[in-house]
Amino acid sequence: MFNKDFLWGCATSAFQVEGAYNEDGKGLSLADIRSLNINPAEEPTKALANVGDKIADSKVASDHYHRWEEDVELMKECGLKSYRFSIAWTRIFPNGDDENANEAGVLFYDNLINKLNEYGIEPIVTLYHFDFPNGLQEKYGGWSDRQSINDFDRYASYLFEHFKGRVRYWLVNNEQNAMIRRDGYLGIKETNILKREQIRHRCNHHMFVACAKAIASCHRIDPEAKIAPVMAYAPHYPLTGKPEDVLAARNVNDLYFHYMIEIHCRGEYPGYYLRWLTENNWLPEITDEDKAILKNGICDFYAFNYYRSNAAVACPKDVPIEEVEKFRVDARSRMLPGLCKCTANTYVKESSLNKWRIDPIGLHIAFRNVYELCHMPLMICENGFGAPDTLESNLQIHDDYRIEYLKEHIEQIHEAILDGIPVIGYHVWTFMDVVSTSEGFRKRYGLVYVDRDEKGGNLNRYKKDSFYWYKNVIATNGESILEK
Ligand code: BGP
Q1: Residue 34 domain boundaries
Q2: Residue 424 belongs to some domain of the structure
Q3: Is the CB of 174 under 6 A from ligand 1?
Q4: Is 23 in the active site?
Q5: Can you say whether the dihedral through the CA atoms of 127, 474, 302, 331 is positive or negative?
Q6: Is the pTM of this model over 0.90?
Q7: In this predicted structure, what is the pLDDT of residue 48?
Q8: Does 329 map to a domain?
Q9: If DSSP states are collapsed to H, E and C, what string results for 137-196?
Q10: Which one is catalytic: 43, 122, 175, 197?
Q11: How far is the CA of 230 from the centre of ligand 1 (A)?
Q12: Per the CB 3.0–4.6 Å rule, which of 165, 310, 444, 479 could disulfide with 433?
């Protein structure tokens, strides 16, 4: 049984849904730049080559900035209990550290949050979803400089004060562990591979300190509010029973995911992580003040995004650094020499629609792994199925594949609840179609279709079959799934 207060919701992020990327005083963010493909040379991945004007970018996105009222009406019709979205830092402070907040930007979120509150839809607000202000990047190099910690805290504190009493759940940042693997989101231009990796870990550390500082500010400014970071989580299984492969899987889980939980929930870097940084000459400066901030900024619950699982095998020590770098962003084949190499899990079926190895049981395992480390209430902030949808001539969209995916994952949430794990909410990625970070509008996730593609489109909204299905799940508090 799902608790009667269970937050059945949907999620989006500012740069992927809003559009109006330079309207009403908004400044440019690194996510805008990456999406607009202004500097493709900085992140020459195959996927990125697909993003940009050819597909539809953050300039217009789903035009939520202009159509938010229509979108919220649809959320009400669907019966959402919560809506997870992000505030664009550059709408509030266009350069990141402006003296005064940009009134028009603040007004947009005032209107949105007030309407959600009026409709009884819990606003769950991410402070930072990949969109660091370009102004601060140009001024001092973004997260690589310590000044970013204070600037983020100032921005976060402004929002805690302004929305006090109107926002009860804050999410600090989205998928820091995914972000530090993507140089475009960190504005890293360094070409030397070793130095580049050192910068990534420095950025990572500053983000941890900024996160803890913002959590402490939230506790001080609005003690009633709850706050947590959001991690990208994919459990990795040993491909075989060989101890070397079992340890390799453990290494992936610890070095990509679990170390974060320790820092966020215990306020300390775990030994295995410090050892890994030190042995590779990547250890950033960690001051006594940093350590105190980390200890003082423990989150109230833990949030993660889950899409699929993966497998791991042992990896030789002598893999050339160029090879490691080549597969850095590809979660399906990345490696850490001497520690682990990710590989496809042939025991999990591959979807012909999007080539994902879909693993609902992996979500149950994820809950057990995460809860074991944090013993805090858990929230799923993203889970969804990305695929090209077909808008039929009668304006219907029959996305039974998405319904199947969501159903199988919600069943596993129930399994976790039966295990005694306090799961407080679940958010489908996404409510309406948004610009995918890897494939623009070619890959859709929404319960609501947005008529937009590389040729343009009228941006009209059409409810997919999954919209009606999820509406029924919410109306029955999950019983419609469990009783079958
Ligand atoms: C997560 C991000 C989201 C979203 C999602 C799907 O990592 O938090 O912003 O984009 O992945 O990924 P993609 O858009 O690349 O399909």
Answers
A1: 7-234+255-305+353-482
A2: yes
A3: yes
A4: no
A5: negative
A6: yes
A7: 40
A8: no
A9: HHHHCHHHCCHHHHHHHHHHHHHHHHCCCCCCEEEEEECHHHHCCCHHHHCCCCCCHHHH
A10: 175
A11: 13
A12: 444
